[in-house]
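Per reviewer request, we include the raw input and output of the structure prediction for the construct analysed in the revised manuscript.
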Amino acid sequence: MTSTNRMTDAQRMSQTLGVIIGAASCCEQVTEERVTTVAVKLKQLVSATAEDGADAEAANEQFFAGLEVGKTAAESGRIDPEQAEAALVELEEDLSV
């Protein structure tokens, strides 16, 4: 189990990608289907990256926390949803979604 002060690669990746997807989900051009498709692919990637089951669960929690941070940031104007959508397109291309 990881300490609360140290995040694993899987957890950091999940948190960052959660923020991107959360912010992108506030963009008019981003459908729920796109968000779901990318999230499923990312979950597979995170599972493969996780150190163990506990790390995978912690990474999943970081992903959902990141989603909320991204949505809040986009809704408050701290993140431009259009730029987040561009980052989502990059993710889709990288994941071959």
